[in-house]
Design brief:
The protein has 191 residues and is α/β, with parallel strands linked by helices. Helix content is 45%, strand content 13%. The protein is built from 5 helices and 5 strands, in the order H-E-H-E-H-E-H-E-H-E. It has a 3-stranded parallel sheet with strand order 3-4-5, with helices on one face. The radius of gyration is 17 Å and the shape is globular.
Length: 191
């Protein structure tokens, strides 16, 4: 059992990451919206881990605002001195028929699920993983990136973004393998 299994039970299945010892938790955060479930979960997880004597740094960030990404990585590095594991778990979706899909909704999903994930991985890779010649990148993709959904779901941007995530992992694993950096995806299904 990992030190975070109670937290992981609420976030992702712990059997996918059986031996990780996470010290950094970040979440997407919107100012002015006080009771977001993700923010509450982070506060609960932080308190839980601190009771166990684990040094925790929670850094609120909106990964769709790319200019925040260097600061996020910088705060973690300042606090812990290094990053060994990056779990890309932030994500968004929007439901609409393809022919009626709003431009802003498309951009919201693609910017967070693809662009934010890429720029955060790039930042951590350049600043940490490549120089230290080791690291682990875990991307939460989806089975929606491997196949279509039932037509009534109307999640074309989500499916497209998760397909991009799956192929991002394939390409980056090939490119960064020479640095002893492991890049993997988890593809949860419907729950």
């Amino acid at each position: 059992q990992t030190t975070l299994e109670p937290l992981l039970d609420r976030a992702i299945r712990p059997d996918f990451v059986p031996a990780l010892d996470y010290h950094e938790i970040s979440t997407r955060f919107y100012e002015g919206l006080p009771a977001l479930p993700g923010v509450t979960l982070v506060a609960e997880a932080k308190a839980h881990l601190e009771k166990m004597g684990i040094d925790v740094l929670a850094v609120p960030a909106d990964l769709s605002k790319f200019d925040q990404i260097p600061g996020l990585a910088g705060k973690v590095l300042e606090h812990f001195g290094r990053i060994d594991i990056l779990l890309n778990n932030a994500g968004a979706t929007w439901g609409a028929k393809a022919e009626d899909y709003p431009f802003d909704a498309w951009m919201k999903v693609i910017n967070l699920n693809v662009n934010g994930m890429f720029f955060l991985t790039q930042e951590v890779g350049k600043r940490c993983f490549i120089p230290q010649k080791s690291g682990k990148v875990i991307v939460t993709a989806s089975i929606a990136g491997l196949r279509g959904n039932p037509p009534e779901m109307g999640t074309i941007a989500y499916n497209a973004s998760k397909g991009a995530d799956v192929n991002f992992v394939r390409a980056l694993a090939s490119e960064w393998g020479r640095y002893n950096i492991n890049v993997n995806a988890i593809c949860p299904g419907f729950f």
